[in-house]
Amino acid sequence: MNKKAVCIMSGGMDSTLSAYMMQEEGYEIVAVHFNYNQRTQQKELSCFEAVCEKLNVKEKYVLDMSFFKDLGASALTDSTIDVPTTGVEDGVPVTYVPFRNGIFLSMAAAIAEKESASVISIGVVEEDSSGYPDCRESYILSMQNAINLGTKDETNIEITMPLVRLKKSQIVQKSLELSVPLELTWSCYKNEEKACGVCDSCRLRLNGFKLAGVIDPISYE
């Protein structure tokens, strides 16, 4: 029987690389994408679909999490809150979506149990966690413990974070090594046509490409 990995995939660079790394390790990919009423929902979904095609994914889930809109409290899900473009923010950024990764991991755990998958892959990067509490390695490991306590005795799930200690430039380099289709990925928090280039996510991405000495293949304003 094939070993399976449930890969949480946003359509972004980090989670796409994570899925490619799992495939390289011999896992059959069960791809999971969440529509949570984020500003770039349609673009992220189309990127996810395109990446799944490249990976020859046979089993995929696209889950509607529109309740995040009712929750609000984040610039990603509430159109009345501006996405910051100055790059200067102290504490938890306004783009943090309350407990998003915890909710995503809970859903991924349900899918992993159904699919008899031994691994959940998530593309968290500690470099992001200065602002996002749900990207910390210690947090993800505690979620792994909770998931295994709350599932069947024979269910034993490992949450893998292949990028957690990498810098964005290393993520770009690793993506190039594995022929990851970076032109199909999206990072911008604001736009769906051309990336803004000034939100935190675009800045991180562009700086990663710059330090890696290569040109980002997506279009910017």
Question: How would you describe this structure to a colleague?
Answer:
Keywords: ATP-binding, Ligase, Metal-binding, Nucleotide-binding, Queuosine biosynthesis, Zinc. Catalyzes the ATP-dependent conversion of 7-carboxy-7-deazaguanine (CDG) to 7-cyano-7-deazaguanine (preQ(0)). It comes from Sulfurimonas aquatica. It catalyses: 7-carboxy-7-carbaguanine + NH4(+) + 2 ATP = 7-cyano-7-carbaguanine + 2 AMP + 2 diphosphate + 2 H(+). With 221 residues, this protein is an alpha/beta fold. The protein has a single domain, classed as HUPs (Rossmann fold, 3-Layer(aba) Sandwich), CATH 3.40.50.620. Helix content is 38%, strand content 11%. It contains seven helices and five strands; from the N terminus they run βαβαβααβαβαα. The protein has helices at residues 13-24, 41-54, 67-71, 100-115, 137-149, 168-177, 200-212, and strands at residues 4-8, 28-35, 59-64, 119-121, 158-160. A five-stranded parallel beta sheet has the order 3-2-1-4-5, sandwiched between helices. Strand 1, helix 1 and strand 2 form a beta-alpha-beta unit. Helix 1 crosses helix 6 (168-177) and helix 6 crosses helix 7. The N and C termini lie far apart (47 Å).
Task: Describe the secondary-structure layout.
Layout: E1 4-8, H1 13-24, E2 28-35, H2 41-54, E3 59-64, H3 67-71, H4 100-115, E4 119-121, H5 137-149, E5 158-160, H6 168-177, H7 200-212
Parallel strand pairs: 1-2, 1-4, 2-3, 4-5
Helix pairs in contact: 1-6, 6-7
